Amino acid sequence: MKSSLKLALGLASAITASTAVSNVAHAEDLTLCWAAWDPANALVELSKDFTKETGIGMKFEFVPWTNYADRFLNELNSHGKLCDLIIGDSQWIGGAAENGHYVKLNDFFDKEKISMDDFVPATVVGYSEWPKNTPNYWALPAMGDVVGWTYRKDWFSKPELQKEFKEKYGWDLGPPTTFDQLKQIAEFFQKRQIDGKTVYGASIYTERGSEGITMGAMDVLYSYGFQYENPKKPYEMEGFVNSDKSVKGLEFYKALYDCCTPPGASNSYMGEGVDAFKSGQVAMHMNFAFTWPGLQKDENVGGDKIGYFVNPKGPDGDQFAQLGGQGISVVSYSDKQESALKYIKWFANKDVQAKWWSLGGYSCLNAVVKDPKFPASQPYAQTFLDSMAIVKDFWAEPSYAPLLQASQKRFHDYVVAGQGSAKDALDGLVKDWTQVFQDDGKM
Amino acid sequence: MLNRTAENVARATPEPLARKVRGISDKGLAWLFISPTILLLLAINIFPLFWAIYLSFTNFRANRPNEVVKNLGFANYQRILADKDIWIAMQTTAHFVFWTILLQTLIGFTLAWLIDRKFRGHAFWTTLILVPMMLSPAVVGNFWRFLYEPQIGLFAYAISFVTGIPPTNIQMLSNVSLAPWSIIIVDTWMWTPYVMLICLAGLRSIPEYIYEAAEVDRASNWRQFWSITLPMALPFIMLAVLFRGIENFKMFDMVNLLTGGGPGSTTEVASITLKRQAFESWRTGYSSAFAIILFVAVFGLANIYVKALNKVKQR
Question: Model-level pTM greater than 0.90?
């Protein structure tokens, strides 16, 4: 009896001790917060190497894009400790820096010899710096992304369509280099019967709720000559946001929506765009580059059937693209900042970045993207590189949210609902944005 | 038996506590029992209300906790009442409330009147009619979005079958003229059974002998309906209108799921505007003022309506 009691006590102690040990191990785990999308799955895979190297476990908190900003901005604003590391959207950087949500990384970068010169310049400005174009770093560029286009190479290469297109428009059917060409192709495919199915011209961003239509319209407006402000006088927007060129750009976006999108595509963003392309509904598809690895692998539309092209040029030959992507930051409310910084150091490593690209993430490290083998590493790699060279981004001010909501409303009211003119929409936008900056005391 | 249990409980109560409890009056004991509920209500209802009133006079933004909060007086209220977009949202809300209540009351009462005939299989039909209101609004919103889909949706095909218009031209959620009606249709489909249930309760509460007396007086069915059925069921109908009115004034889930306020701002009801200002633009002070205005409007209208309802009941 006594021996069985001893045995039971021994077992109980062993179980208690092992639980304690496992709890200690869990206490060291880092939680990384990001959006729930394909690159996040790649990061889970990649991070296993970090755990192997350091013994620090990784937990992940991924939230769908539709709730991503709400969820994590709430978390940061309430000084929550859920996230030790966060891959926050590029537009958050101003607010996160000014409100003390992110740890400033300058000293850490100096100590660990991490140089921002080693990263693609646009990603450093877009994801890491606040104020912009100053050497104040709040994030390490983590996931390069940019709006570009995919097209149905198999449809474009059908001889009968090529012939008909050439007769109609006088130039060879191929990836467009100007927006006018893009619209001609979209019109050509709109409601055409291909393989017994009715297909449509293009899928573009029209989503109202978060940031969709702004990302899409801006992607076109930049190349038409839109500017956020007077380059010589910050926050002066009259004549820049609502310039004649901007008006023409917005009119073009509406014309593209009216003529050449699938029926009912009035609230379409990344997911809806991918669905439209994957289901063989559209000839061309505007979307962030992160969608390309998944589409390339798709059995129905991937492989040889898909092609990629950079955002086309505007009427004056200007060519820009909307920046996407994010940097990785250490949350200042985390109790595990030291371990989180270890992760950043590990993530900045060249080999890790190379593996990140191979798994489906978009590295921002020059050593990876400027490698001579890089352009041939994936069918979309060259398009990604070319697109990243021409990026522009939305406001990254602390007030980016009301600025974004204003553009969402103005653009959707005009482009989708057809209310007022492009000039009205952009004049209204200047008024809204002026109000936001006046409230902030910046004007 | 009950006394013995009480004695047992009293005996089992530890002496120091028993001494304290013995000194509490019945009223005190009642307060003791309801105090947790009151505290909970104060914490989750009353305190946030007063806090929102306080915030409505400030420039507070929840996403900038470190910024100095300034007192703006009535500036937020003035700005809201002078904002054209807010008035458009209020008009959109009024449009929804009016049409949904009208349709739900007409159809709901008609269904209740038919069910009250107690025809063969009426219990089965009652159960079937009640199904929509038992579903979650999230489920309803999502499947109606698919039904309305112009390329694959059954709704578009059904309309196309009847009218001959190609289904891809029936863009319920994208068309500026059709989008408000797409939400009215779904809300009516979902909540008419609720109105029907209340009306049915009203119809069943009318004593049979009144109809028998009317029969003796040779009153026609039409006369019986206008002189007995409708007046006696009216308080119930009014109650249903009150409930649906309050619910639809703050309609959010269905609009958010079906159109998200679009296309443009065509279906942006007040609650959607409020959510955008509060949780997307992070204008906490401004949105608190808007919430207070909405609260006062609903509270005021509901009070006027309840007084009218009481008058009808007293007739």
Answer: no
